[in-house]
Amino acid sequence: MIATAPPESSPRPIETNGGGAPPPPWSSSPGELARAVATDPEHGLVPDEAASRLGRHGPNRLTTRGPRPTGRILIDQFRGPVVAILAAAALASLVLAQWLEATAIGLVLAIDAAIGFTAEWRAIRSMEALRALGRTRVRVRRDGVDALIADETLVPGDLVVIEAGDVVAADARLVEANKVEVDESMLTGESASVSKSIDALPPDTPASERTCMIHRGTRVVRGSGRAIVVATGMATEVGRVADLAESAEETTTPLERRLRRLGHRLLWMVLAITTVTVLIGVARGRPVTGMLEIGVALAVAAIPEGLPIVATVDLARGLWRLARHHALVNRLAAVEVLGATDVIIADKTGTLTENRMRVVRLELADGGIDLGPGADPSPSPPTVLGPIVTEALETMTLCNNAALPADGDPHGRCTGDPLEVAMLAAAAEADIERPHLLARHPERREEPFDPATRRMATVHGRTAPHRVACKGAAEAIVPACDSIRTGDGDRPLDETARRRWLDRADALAADGLRVLALATGSVATPDADLDGGLILLGLVGLRDPPREDVAAVLRRCRHAGLRLVMATGDHPGTARRIAQDLGMLDAEAADDAVIEGRDFDAVDERTRLKASVFARVDPAQKIEIIRMHQRAGSIVAMTGDGVNDAPALRQADIGVAMGRRGTAVAREAADMVLQDDAFASIVRAIRHGRVIDQNIRRFVRYLLSCNLSEVAVVLAASAMGLPMPILPLQILYLNLVTDVFPALALGVGEGSAAIMDRRPRPATAPIVSTREWITIGWQGAAIALATLVALLTASGPLGLTPTQSVTASFLTLGLAQVWHVLDMRSRGSHPLHNDVIRNPWVLGAIVLCVGLLAAAVHVPPLAGPLGLDAADPAIAVRLWSLALACSAAPVIVMQIVIGGPAPRRSRRGSETARG
User: Fold this and answer.
1) With contact defined as beta carbons under 8 Å apart, do 762 and 633 qualify?
2) Among the options 166, 183, 347, 869, which is catalytic?
3) Is 151 assigned a catalytic role?
């Protein structure tokens, strides 16, 4: 049976009846393994034994970190310093028996929690729908009967039956392999498929070289066979990587850190202001209860109650807009993090490239020929380019086990090794199709690809001499050839000529191509020796091309001040060429622009930070690449789709996984999943993030300046011995109604057209800079001064009652704050043509807020509790005239200060520009 604890990175070891440490499954023969796990290699387990093992080992699933529980989501909405201050103010109101104020503050907290909870709950439900895509069924033989079962019910000792196209559901040891090849790119990052056999291997063979093993999550691209399951769930190689992903540090987003710093600053400011004010009042002989009420009023005035609501709504709207553009985000604050991202670390295979091989070059004795997209279509092979091209394409087709979709089947899919599929596709472009070719040259024998010989050969023909088709590594094929085919006939190959061909193969490899040699020949019998006497046809170069949209996307990223770093498990030469094709590197790039995994530890961190490409890196090295950029102060996004990407996705400030081809482990580890697998969606997400950052900074400045005006009014009146110009409940009304709607309108703005023409804001930049605090200070003072002027005018020259005077100050303060939203345009923009004026929600918010202010003073059910009085029509006209005149003064002054068009900025100097 299988032990329960895996040793290091290995699957669960086999328990033996004898003493001593059991051998790993890859070092046991199929018969020895079957006896060790007590299973029949022909009939499999009996159902009762399978059920028993399922009870002992548990379901075959990965125990990755699941979504947050519903209760935890709700509790998290009440965290943060702003919420703490509001809760304290509500408690103080209850102590002072100010029931309406306490209820209003509680309502603020409830609204914010409801919005945040709804947004995150919807996001999590969307992510759970994606998780369901990863569930598969597997063919297993139990008691001699083949059946399809849920992959979660697979147990150690089960006998699974595999064939081309299957996704492997658990780690298993092959006991029968008929030309089996497996795509392990999701685990290793290598795009080439791996040939499998049943031969035992040494115990210390690394996971990437265990050719008798198949691993969970990999895909069978060719052949068929049977295998005994040796590890399930978290004991698999995929489970080991998933466990590494769980141990990676989960970071907070820049917005979370900025809002936390702002909240702490507000907390200390509120404590300082209220404490000093209350102590001074008490020292002057004022009643303690009255001063506590003033303290509560100051606390309520200082805290922008609408800030959590507006921030949550803005992030939620960004989350939903991204979902409409095929990007699902599972954490609300992560929507904003892309706006601060300045480094994107991308996996190559399947992210920057199509993970689909193409034949792009043929090197023949008489010259080279470009094939595939971008090649000169005239003349077209094979009719004009000659018989050698035809023979090379036919050799690719005959020495092949892949299959293209049937004619007339637009929805059919290719089967087999992507490399062999690419060869068939190249031949099909020249009207050479494998079924027709095999009809003329039936296959009599196949010598499958062997890692030892590094070649594959087939023998064809009904009668002698039989045709030989051979392909493989250049260093394996070229030495086996005695001659080379040319347009003038076959010529002998000597050692000098062989060296030249191997050099040509190296040159193609340096160009980022996967290189194979093609050879032909003839034998008298199908079972004749194929080790010599072959005729070299030439070399074929294949490329996994970049995704069509990626180069343009990367240009936009660079224009926006973003840096792309490639981290791949592929060959350094291939990675370098892909980077050059995408514009990440130029042809003269230094050698240390590409760092190979084996040299990673030997290179100092300064050199690593300058590198644009990391090749042959493992999951742990990807995590270190992210961490070193984070140590350098960067906000890092990581893209990937394979299991080997999962730990890095978790470590990054935001992990971006592919939804269609991405593995379940990668989707679980990511913060964002691209449902369309389009790299361009990342740029859209980055723009959304920057717009959100700009909107947040705008409405934070707006809310803080409005609230500072309220604090200044209360402090000035208290210091001057005046009656309170505005009451706590009136402050709450303004903060919840007339502040929130303009702030919400700012939060849903479409952003500046030039928002992607500047570098991202530094990760350490506060949400409100020192310069902006100064601006907020004098703006709040201007509004407070206008409010005090209205109060003194109403109680003095106009001779209004105290309640009517407070109504005048209430209206002036409210209207001045409403007009103040127009001051949030970018410095230097046109007063009448800017993105704030063009935002229809802003104009709507202004109209709504003016209506709500009118309702507060003219609707008795509202005016009474608020302590407002404008029932007399004549008094109302005087109040409104005074309020309109006083409230207009600050906005006129501020519009003059903001000014006209600003001087032009360089793109690199614009990161400090105000939003």
Assistant:
1) yes
2) 347
3) no
